[in-house]
Design a protein that fits this description.
This protein is an alpha/beta fold and 246 residues long. It contains nine helices and ten strands. It has a six-stranded mixed β-sheet with strand order 6-7-8-3-9-10, sandwiched between helices. It has a four-stranded antiparallel β-sheet with strand order 2-1-4-5, with helices on one face. The relative contact order is 0.17.
Protein backbone atom coordinates (compact mmCIF):
# COMPACT_ATOMS: atom_id res chain seq x y z
CA UNK A 1 0.00 0.00 0.00
CA UNK A 2 1.20 3.50 -0.65
CA UNK A 3 0.94 6.31 1.84
CA UNK A 4 -2.21 7.86 0.33
CA UNK A 5 -4.40 4.81 0.83
CA UNK A 6 -6.73 4.55 3.77
CA UNK A 7 -5.88 1.72 6.13
CA UNK A 8 -8.90 2.49 8.33
CA UNK A 9 -11.91 4.62 7.46
CA UNK A 10 -14.86 5.17 9.79
CA UNK A 11 -18.03 6.84 8.52
CA UNK A 12 -20.86 8.12 10.72
CA UNK A 13 -20.18 5.55 13.44
CA UNK A 14 -22.72 5.37 16.25
CA UNK A 15 -22.50 3.04 19.23
CA UNK A 16 -25.08 2.65 21.97
CA UNK A 17 -24.78 0.66 25.17
CA UNK A 18 -28.46 0.44 26.09
CA UNK A 19 -29.75 4.01 26.07
CA UNK A 20 -26.26 5.47 26.40
CA UNK A 21 -24.85 6.75 23.09
CA UNK A 22 -21.09 6.36 23.45
CA UNK A 23 -20.10 7.24 19.86
CA UNK A 24 -22.12 9.98 18.19
CA UNK A 25 -21.48 9.89 14.45
CA UNK A 26 -17.71 9.53 14.25
CA UNK A 27 -15.90 10.22 10.96
CA UNK A 28 -12.27 9.17 11.23
CA UNK A 29 -9.46 7.72 9.15
CA UNK A 30 -5.93 6.40 9.40
CA UNK A 31 -3.80 6.44 6.25
CA UNK A 32 -1.44 3.59 5.46
CA UNK A 33 1.86 4.04 7.29
CA UNK A 34 0.39 6.71 9.57
CA UNK A 35 0.52 6.81 13.38
CA UNK A 36 -2.70 8.30 14.75
CA UNK A 37 -2.90 8.95 18.50
CA UNK A 38 -6.31 9.29 20.15
CA UNK A 39 -6.51 11.16 23.46
CA UNK A 40 -9.31 12.30 25.73
CA UNK A 41 -10.80 11.91 29.20
CA UNK A 42 -12.13 8.62 30.54
CA UNK A 43 -15.53 7.86 29.08
CA UNK A 44 -14.94 9.91 25.93
CA UNK A 45 -15.42 6.89 23.65
CA UNK A 46 -11.84 6.50 22.44
CA UNK A 47 -11.40 2.84 23.47
CA UNK A 48 -14.86 2.00 22.12
CA UNK A 49 -13.88 3.55 18.78
CA UNK A 50 -10.70 1.47 18.72
CA UNK A 51 -12.57 -1.74 19.58
CA UNK A 52 -15.14 -1.08 16.86
CA UNK A 53 -12.36 -0.97 14.25
CA UNK A 54 -11.99 -4.76 14.43
CA UNK A 55 -15.55 -5.31 15.67
CA UNK A 56 -14.65 -6.38 19.17
CA UNK A 57 -17.51 -3.99 19.82
CA UNK A 58 -20.47 -4.19 17.47
CA UNK A 59 -21.30 -0.79 15.93
CA UNK A 60 -24.92 0.30 16.23
CA UNK A 61 -24.79 2.04 12.85
CA UNK A 62 -22.28 3.44 10.37
CA UNK A 63 -19.53 1.95 8.24
CA UNK A 64 -15.98 0.84 8.99
CA UNK A 65 -13.57 0.06 6.17
CA UNK A 66 -10.29 -1.76 6.78
CA UNK A 67 -8.04 -1.62 3.72
CA UNK A 68 -11.16 -0.89 1.65
CA UNK A 69 -13.23 -3.79 3.02
CA UNK A 70 -16.50 -2.91 4.79
CA UNK A 71 -16.21 -4.97 7.98
CA UNK A 72 -19.83 -4.21 8.94
CA UNK A 73 -21.06 -6.05 5.83
CA UNK A 74 -22.48 -9.46 6.76
CA UNK A 75 -20.76 -10.95 3.69
CA UNK A 76 -17.28 -9.92 4.90
CA UNK A 77 -14.97 -12.64 6.20
CA UNK A 78 -14.27 -10.95 9.53
CA UNK A 79 -11.63 -13.46 10.62
CA UNK A 80 -9.67 -12.79 7.43
CA UNK A 81 -9.75 -9.04 8.05
CA UNK A 82 -8.86 -9.45 11.71
CA UNK A 83 -5.83 -11.53 10.77
CA UNK A 84 -4.35 -8.33 9.30
CA UNK A 85 -4.93 -6.30 12.48
CA UNK A 86 -2.67 -6.65 15.51
CA UNK A 87 -4.25 -5.66 18.82
CA UNK A 88 -2.54 -4.78 22.11
CA UNK A 89 -4.67 -4.14 25.19
CA UNK A 90 -4.15 -2.49 28.58
CA UNK A 91 -3.96 -5.94 30.13
CA UNK A 92 -1.48 -8.29 28.55
CA UNK A 93 -3.78 -11.31 28.09
CA UNK A 94 -0.93 -13.81 27.97
CA UNK A 95 -1.67 -17.45 28.70
CA UNK A 96 -0.21 -17.92 32.21
CA UNK A 97 0.37 -21.67 31.80
CA UNK A 98 2.44 -21.22 28.62
CA UNK A 99 6.01 -20.05 28.18
CA UNK A 100 6.68 -16.83 26.32
CA UNK A 101 7.63 -18.79 23.19
CA UNK A 102 4.44 -20.85 23.32
CA UNK A 103 2.38 -17.68 23.77
CA UNK A 104 3.91 -16.37 20.53
CA UNK A 105 3.51 -19.55 18.49
CA UNK A 106 0.04 -20.86 19.37
CA UNK A 107 -1.96 -18.46 17.18
CA UNK A 108 0.59 -18.66 14.37
CA UNK A 109 0.10 -22.41 14.21
CA UNK A 110 -3.68 -22.44 14.67
CA UNK A 111 -4.64 -19.39 12.61
CA UNK A 112 -1.76 -18.91 10.18
CA UNK A 113 -1.23 -22.69 9.85
CA UNK A 114 2.51 -22.33 10.19
CA UNK A 115 4.73 -25.28 11.00
CA UNK A 116 6.21 -25.38 14.49
CA UNK A 117 9.70 -24.55 13.20
CA UNK A 118 8.45 -21.60 11.13
CA UNK A 119 6.35 -20.27 14.04
CA UNK A 120 9.32 -20.51 16.40
CA UNK A 121 11.57 -18.70 13.93
CA UNK A 122 9.05 -15.83 13.57
CA UNK A 123 8.52 -15.70 17.34
CA UNK A 124 12.23 -15.49 18.10
CA UNK A 125 12.70 -12.72 15.55
CA UNK A 126 9.95 -10.67 17.20
CA UNK A 127 11.16 -11.37 20.73
CA UNK A 128 14.54 -10.03 19.67
CA UNK A 129 12.81 -6.97 18.19
CA UNK A 130 11.23 -6.14 21.56
CA UNK A 131 14.45 -6.90 23.46
CA UNK A 132 13.34 -10.12 25.14
CA UNK A 133 15.14 -12.87 23.25
CA UNK A 134 16.49 -14.31 26.51
CA UNK A 135 12.97 -14.69 28.00
CA UNK A 136 11.53 -17.24 25.57
CA UNK A 137 11.35 -20.02 28.20
CA UNK A 138 10.01 -17.80 30.99
CA UNK A 139 6.40 -17.86 32.15
CA UNK A 140 4.40 -14.59 32.27
CA UNK A 141 4.31 -14.58 36.09
CA UNK A 142 8.10 -14.28 36.12
CA UNK A 143 8.11 -11.14 33.95
CA UNK A 144 7.54 -7.51 34.89
CA UNK A 145 4.46 -5.76 33.56
CA UNK A 146 6.55 -3.94 30.97
CA UNK A 147 8.11 -7.20 29.80
CA UNK A 148 4.69 -8.83 29.57
CA UNK A 149 3.41 -5.95 27.46
CA UNK A 150 6.42 -6.22 25.14
CA UNK A 151 5.70 -9.96 24.81
CA UNK A 152 2.11 -9.06 23.91
CA UNK A 153 3.38 -6.72 21.20
CA UNK A 154 5.74 -9.42 19.89
CA UNK A 155 2.83 -11.87 19.84
CA UNK A 156 0.73 -9.46 17.74
CA UNK A 157 3.66 -8.83 15.37
CA UNK A 158 4.17 -12.57 14.91
CA UNK A 159 0.88 -12.68 12.98
CA UNK A 160 2.37 -10.30 10.37
CA UNK A 161 -0.34 -7.65 10.67
CA UNK A 162 -0.72 -4.75 8.26
CA UNK A 163 -1.63 -2.45 11.13
CA UNK A 164 -1.54 -2.33 14.93
CA UNK A 165 -4.18 -1.09 17.36
CA UNK A 166 -3.01 -0.11 20.85
CA UNK A 167 -5.58 0.45 23.62
CA UNK A 168 -3.76 2.42 26.34
CA UNK A 169 -0.86 -0.07 26.28
CA UNK A 170 1.09 1.61 29.10
CA UNK A 171 -1.73 2.57 31.48
CA UNK A 172 -1.39 -0.58 33.63
CA UNK A 173 2.40 -0.24 33.97
CA UNK A 174 4.56 1.21 36.70
CA UNK A 175 6.01 4.53 35.46
CA UNK A 176 9.59 3.26 35.17
CA UNK A 177 8.43 0.44 32.85
CA UNK A 178 6.57 2.66 30.39
CA UNK A 179 9.65 3.79 28.47
CA UNK A 180 10.63 0.31 27.26
CA UNK A 181 7.17 -0.28 25.77
CA UNK A 182 7.08 3.16 24.12
CA UNK A 183 10.54 2.52 22.65
CA UNK A 184 9.21 -0.61 20.94
CA UNK A 185 6.22 1.33 19.59
CA UNK A 186 8.53 4.12 18.43
CA UNK A 187 10.62 1.56 16.54
CA UNK A 188 7.51 0.14 14.85
CA UNK A 189 6.50 3.63 13.75
CA UNK A 190 9.96 4.23 12.29
CA UNK A 191 9.59 1.00 10.30
CA UNK A 192 6.37 2.31 8.76
CA UNK A 193 3.78 0.30 10.68
CA UNK A 194 0.26 1.74 10.48
CA UNK A 195 -0.80 2.39 14.06
CA UNK A 196 -3.86 3.64 15.92
CA UNK A 197 -2.92 4.37 19.52
CA UNK A 198 -5.30 5.29 22.35
CA UNK A 199 -2.92 6.81 24.88
CA UNK A 200 -2.32 9.18 27.77
CA UNK A 201 1.36 9.54 26.82
CA UNK A 202 1.44 13.05 25.41
CA UNK A 203 5.20 12.97 24.79
CA UNK A 204 4.81 9.89 22.61
CA UNK A 205 1.91 11.48 20.74
CA UNK A 206 3.97 14.60 20.08
CA UNK A 207 7.14 12.78 19.00
CA UNK A 208 5.75 9.82 17.09
CA UNK A 209 2.21 10.69 16.02
CA UNK A 210 1.39 11.91 12.53
CA UNK A 211 -2.08 12.96 13.65
CA UNK A 212 -3.61 13.65 17.06
CA UNK A 213 -7.32 13.19 17.70
CA UNK A 214 -8.98 14.61 20.83
CA UNK A 215 -12.29 12.97 21.77
CA UNK A 216 -14.81 13.97 24.39
CA UNK A 217 -18.43 12.98 24.94
CA UNK A 218 -18.48 10.54 22.03
CA UNK A 219 -17.38 13.01 19.37
CA UNK A 220 -14.09 14.14 17.84
CA UNK A 221 -13.60 17.64 19.21
CA UNK A 222 -10.33 18.46 17.47
CA UNK A 223 -7.72 16.77 15.30
CA UNK A 224 -4.54 17.78 13.55
CA UNK A 225 -0.76 17.79 13.69
CA UNK A 226 0.22 16.68 17.23
CA UNK A 227 2.65 19.58 17.73
CA UNK A 228 -0.02 22.07 16.68
CA UNK A 229 -2.85 20.59 18.74
CA UNK A 230 -0.74 20.22 21.88
CA UNK A 231 0.91 23.63 21.63
CA UNK A 232 -2.06 25.64 20.37
CA UNK A 233 -5.39 23.82 20.83
CA UNK A 234 -8.23 25.63 19.08
CA UNK A 235 -11.19 24.28 21.03
CA UNK A 236 -11.95 25.37 24.59
CA UNK A 237 -12.61 21.76 25.66
CA UNK A 238 -9.23 20.65 24.30
CA UNK A 239 -7.55 23.54 26.11
CA UNK A 240 -9.14 22.53 29.42
CA UNK A 241 -8.14 18.88 29.02
CA UNK A 242 -4.55 19.63 28.05
CA UNK A 243 -4.15 22.15 30.88
CA UNK A 244 -4.64 19.22 33.28
CA UNK A 245 -2.41 16.63 31.59
CA UNK A 246 0.52 18.64 30.20
Amino acid sequence: MNGTQRAIEVRQLHKYFGDNEVLKGIDFHVDAGQVVCVIGPSGSGKSTLLRCVNRLEEPTSGQIFVEGVDICDDETDLDKVRSRIGMVFQQFNLFPHMTVLDNLTVAQRKVRRRSKSEAVEVARKNLAKVGLAEKENAYPAHLSGGQQQRVAIARALSMNPDMMLFDEPTSALDPELVGDVLDVMRQLAEEGMTMMVVTHEMGFAREVGDKLVFMDGGVIVEEGDPHEVLANPQHERTQRFLSKVL
